[in-house]
Each structure stands twice: as structure tokens, then as C-alpha cells.
Design brief:
alpha+beta; Archaeosine Trna-guanine Transglycosylase, Chain: A, domain 4
């Protein structure tokens, strides 16, 4: 089972079903129906395993397009709006990756909490 990492405990993680946006993986991308272990601070000695969730859907999104990420989706993901989300992505990832790579919108449902 693969790990889906979060740097902090976002409020969305307390919901039965939640979404997150991730760049496609280079080894093996996320798949529908895949079970993943949700972990906070995975590379820290303070690592916290929150539980297991299932990916119930995966949608490909191009960030800078008419079908990119809406304000409603960004708010559900924990940001103030889509501009706030884009600003966070710019601070976190190289500019080329944001402009050139699509994102996966993953919808997950908790299967088992720790």
C-alpha cells in the first residue's frame, strides 16, 4: 500500500470524503479504487498515520486552462480561493512543473482511521 503524504492536518482530513490535488507520479500514478495510507509528516520522527483511504475518483486538470481548478474546489482543498492555491503551488514547486504538468484531482473516502 502506498503512502499519500500531507505536511499538516488540513480540516478536509476530518471529512468522510475529501479531495486533494497531486502531480502525477513518475513511477506509477495514482489509480481509481487504490487503497492508500494517509500520513502526516511522513519523513519526520513525528510521523502520524491517520488511516487508510480509497481513491474513489481521479480527474486530470490543467492548472492554467478554462477547466482548471475552480474557487469552490480550492476552498474544499483548504485554500481561500484558486489564486491562493496557485500562490501556494508557486512557493512549493518549480515554476516549470506548475506550467507544464497537469494535476490529478483525487477524491478519497476513509476506509479505516487509526
Amino acid at each position: 500500500m502506498r503512502i499519500l503524504r500531507f505536511g499538516k492536518h488540513w480540516l478536509k482530513l476530518d471529512q468522510h470524503e475529501f479531495t486533494t490535488f497531486r502531480f502525477p507520479r513518475k513511477d506509477k500514478d495514482w489509480e481509481d479504487k487504490e487503497l492508500v495510507q494517509i500520513v502526516l509528516q511522513s519523513r519526520s520522527k513525528n510521523r502520524i498515520v491517520l488511516g487508510v483511504a480509497q481513491i474513489v475518483s481521479k480527474e486530470r486538470r490543467v492548472l492554467f486552462s478554462p477547466f482548471g481548478i475552480s474557487d469552490e474546489e480550492a476552498i474544499a482543498d483548504g485554500f481561500w480561493n484558486s489564486i491562493d492555491m496557485i500562490d501556494w503551488l508557486k512557493k512549493t514547486y518549480p515554476r516549470e512543473r506548475i506550467w507544464l504538468n497537469p494535476l490529478n484531482k483525487l477524491t478519497l473516502r476513509w476506509i479505516k482511521g487509526e
